[in-house]
């Protein structure tokens, strides 16, 4: 095939794919399902002392640059327990770093340090000569997430480093006596009604209530949900994650990041608008302020 024809064919395929991606209908359902981008990942990056290992997921065929998300696992968990988040968020257009803490029992403050180190790793990946994501990551569009003690670490990091971040999403966070009035970025707290490890009355709910009324914030409590509502199903019977609500928590997290990290106002109605009855029926509590 002549070079010019091969070039035109490749250009046609690229343009066709771009049209297909841009034509995706934005809905709660679509955000709860895998997104339009192909997901790739790697684990080779310059080591840092704050965490022991990590995997970086990214949207391999996204033409535009993208923001980043760092995610910490919970107590005695590994990045494997967060892996579905890496794939899900990357498929919707974000670079996502899921990390392993130095010790499985690292406390929330150490996880906060790990999250901020992970943010710096993502930023540096955009500059690293020969790096997979060189020139692709938007350094000023960073966010953090975490489960359990990782959720506590997320709140601690957001409380101290808001100027470096765009959004925070702690899920079933564990942090006794936590007050986070200094958080200045939009924060989505995801909780489980029947969480026996970090009961909502002692953790997620007072964390949410301590947040300033001057920031966008949301409390999403899953009816009957346990401590592992947002975890990967690894086959560990001890965890029994409520994977049946991954579409709900995953969709809201994507919408939150699209609105507050990407700054895309097309997602505001999906975040703060009326929730479909079938989704509302799966919540024991839902409150927010814009």
What is the element layout, followed by pairings?
Elements: H1 3-22, H2 28-32, E1 39-42, E2 51-59, E3 66-72, H3 83-91, E4 95-101, H4 108-125, E5 137-147, H5 149-160, E6 167-171, E7 187-192, H6 204-210, E8 217-222, H7 246-260, H8 268-272, H9 277-280, E9 283-289
Parallel strand pairs: 3-4, 3-5, 5-6, 6-7, 7-8
Antiparallel strand pairs: 1-2, 2-4, 8-9
Concise description?
Keywords: Hydrolase, Signal. This is Alpha/beta hydrolase. This protein has 290 residues and is α/β, with parallel strands linked by helices.
- Low-pLDDT stretches are 1-23
With strands numbered from the N-terminus, the spatial order across the biggest sheet is: 1-2-4-3-5-6-7-8-9
CATH architecture: 3-Layer(aba) Sandwich
Query: What fraction of residues sit in β-strands?
Result: 15-25%
The total number of structural domains is 1
The CATH topology name reads Rossmann fold
Keywords: Hydrolase, Signal
Signal peptide: 1-23
GO molecular function, one term: carboxylic ester hydrolase activity
Domain PET hydrolase/cutinase-like: 35-273
Can you characterise this structure?
The chain contains 9 helices and 9 strands. The chain is α/β, with parallel strands linked by helices. It has a 9-stranded mixed beta sheet with strand order 1-2-4-3-5-6-7-8-9, sandwiched between helices. It comes from SAR86 cluster bacterium.
């Amino acid at each position: 095939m002549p070079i010019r024809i091969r070039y035109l064919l490749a250009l046609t395929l690229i343009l066709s794919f771009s049209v297909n991606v841009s034509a995706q209908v934005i809905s709660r359902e679509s955000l709860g399902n895998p997104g339009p981008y192909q997901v790739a990942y790697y684990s080779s990056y310059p080591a840092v002392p704050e965490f022991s290992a990590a995997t970086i997921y990214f949207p391999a065929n996204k033409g535009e640059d993208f923001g980043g998300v760092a995610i910490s696992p919970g107590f005695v968990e590994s990045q494997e327990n967060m892996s579905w988040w890496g794939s899900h968020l990357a498929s919707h257009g974000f670079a996502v770093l899921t990390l392993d803490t130095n010790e499985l029992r690292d406390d929330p403050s150490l996880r906060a340090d790990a999250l901020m180190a992970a943010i710096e790793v993502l930023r540096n990946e955009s500059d690293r000569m020969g790096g997979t994501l060189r020139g692709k990551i938007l350094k000023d569009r960073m966010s953090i997430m975490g489960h359990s003690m990782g959720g506590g670490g997320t709140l601690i990091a957001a409380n101290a480093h808001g100027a470096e971040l765009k959004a925070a999403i702690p899920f079933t966070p564990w942090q006794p006596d936590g007050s986070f009035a200094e958080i200045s970025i939009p924060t989505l707290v995801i909780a489980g009604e029947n969480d026996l490890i970090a009961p909502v009355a002692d953790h997620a709910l007072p964390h949410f209530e301590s947040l300033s009324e001057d920031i966008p914030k949301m409390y999403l409590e899953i009816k009957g949900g346990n401590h592992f509502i947002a975890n990967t199903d690894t086959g560990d019977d001890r965890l029994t994650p409520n994977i049946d609500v991954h579409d709900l928590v995953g969709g809201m997290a994507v919408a939150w990041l699209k609105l507050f990290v990407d700054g895309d106002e097309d997602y505001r109605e999906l975040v703060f608008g009326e929730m479909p009855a079938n989704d509302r029926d799966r919540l024991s509590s839902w409150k927010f302020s814009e």
